Amino acid sequence: MATKSVLAPEDILIEELGYEDHFHEHHEDDKYRSNFFSTYIFSMDHKMIAKQFLVTGIFWAIIGAGMSIIFRLQLGFPEENMAWIKPLLGKWIVVNDAGIGSLAPEFYYALVTMHGTILVFFVLTAGLSGTFSNLLIPLQIGARDMASPMLNMMSYWFFFLAGLIMFLSLFLSTGPFSGGWTAYPPLSALPQASDGSAGGMTMWVVSLAFFVVSVLLGGINYITTVLNMRTKGMTMWRLPLTIWAFFVTAILGLLSFPVLLSGLLLTMCDRGLGTSFYLSEIFIGGQALDHVGGSPILYQHLFWFLGHPEVYIIILPAMGLVSEVMSVHARKPIFGYKAMVYSILAIGFLSFIVWAHHMFMSGVNPFISNFFVIFTLIIAVPSAVKVFNWITTLYGGNIRFTSAMLFSIGFVSMFISGGLTGIFLGNSAIDIQMHDTYFVVAHFHIVMGIAAFFGMFAGIYNWFPKMYGRFMNETLGKIHFWGTLIGSYAIFWPLHYLGMAGVPRRYYRFDSFDTFSHFATLNKFVTIAAIVVFALQILFVINFFYSIYKGKKMTTRNPWKANTLEWTTPIDTGHGNWPGKIPTVHRWAYDYGKDGKDFISQIKPLEEGEVEVH
Amino acid sequence: MGIIIILSLILIGIVVVQIARITELAGKLRGEEEAMMDSNRRNGAYMLLFVVGFLIFCVISAMYYKNWMLGYGPHISASEHGVALDGLFDTTLFFTGIVFVVTQILLFWYSYKYQYKPGRKVLFLAHDTRLEVFWTAIPAAVMCFLVVKGLIVWNEAMADTNDEYIEIEAMGQQFNWLIRYPGTDNRLGERNYKLFTASNPFGQDWTDTKNLDDFHPSEIVLPKGKKVRVRITSKDVLHNFDLPHFRVKMDAIPGLPTYFVFTPTTTTEEYRERLKTTPEYQALSDPDDPGSPMLWEAFNYELACAELCGKGHYSMKRVVKIVEQDEYEAWAALQQEQAWYPNNVKGKDEDPFKEMNAAKEKKMELETRRKNFMESINNAINATEAKDRMFKLDYVKYQTGSALLADESSDELDNLVQALTDFPNLRLELAGHTDNIGNPANNQALSQKRAESVYTYLTGKGIASNRLTAVGYGDTQPIESNDNEEGRRKNRRTEARITSN
Question: Which residue from A204, A247, B66, B150 could staple onto A427, CB 3.0 to 4.6 Å apart?
Answer without folding.
Answer: B150
